[in-house]
């Protein structure tokens, strides 16, 4: 059954990498929000911007697209590792899947609360760890984008 799945995955790789790239690109919006509203406010005292109303709901929606993004991009790296061991691919898969820890243990709500309401129970260092985990996606995003553009270029030729 796995052989059939990976055969299908390889045959439809262009579609799969396109979906993974699209979902992952949405996460850039989340990282910009995290930096501009949460990190910047923590470092200098005032956020660069504050999302309210429909924009706050949109950022929440984008945040929830992280789950299908993690799944689809993980398949890209598992497929690469299936073809042969590569330390970089393994590290990127590890960076990517550290996001599950961030999603289910250290949420954005905790990070915002920690920075905005001093005296919370959990230490500020844990909030910074959550932010670091979130930004571990960046090298994976860049590599996934390169895979996407390489696939599109090769498909065009």
**Uncertain regions spanning at least 5 consecutive residues:** none
Helix content: over 70%
Radius of gyration: 18 Å
Number of domains: 1
Average predicted confidence as pLDDT: 88
Q: Strand portion, in percent?
A: under 5%
Number of strands: 0
Describe the biggest sheet? none
What's the helix count? 9
Structural class call reads: mainly alpha
How would you describe this structure to a colleague?
It is a single chain. The chain has 157 residues and is mostly helical. It has one domain. The chain contains nine helices and no strands. Helix 2 runs antiparallel to helix 9 and helix 4 runs antiparallel to helix 5. The longest helix has 32 residues. The radius of gyration is 18 Å and the shape is elongated. The model has no long low-confidence stretch (mean pLDDT 88).
């Amino acid at each position: 059954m796995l052989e059939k799945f990976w055969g299908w995955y390889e045959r439809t790789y262009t579609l799969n990498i396109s979906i993974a790239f699209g979902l992952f690109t949405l996460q850039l919006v989340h990282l910009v929000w995290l930096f501009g509203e949460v990190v910047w406010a923590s470092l200098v005292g005032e956020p660069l911007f504050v999302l309210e109303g429909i924009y706050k709901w949109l950022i929440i929606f984008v945040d929830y697209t992280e789950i299908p993004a993690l799944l689809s991009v993980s398949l890209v790296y598992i497929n690469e590792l299936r073809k042969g061991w590569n330390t970089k691919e393994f590290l990127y898969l590890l960076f990517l899947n550290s996001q599950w820890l961030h999603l289910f243990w250290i949420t954005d709500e905790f990070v915002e609360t920690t920075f905005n309401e001093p005296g919370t129970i959990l230490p500020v260092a844990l909030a910074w760890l959550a932010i670091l985990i979130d930004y571990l996606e960046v090298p994976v995003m860049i590599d996934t984008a390169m895979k996407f553009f390489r696939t599109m270029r090769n498909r065009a030729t």
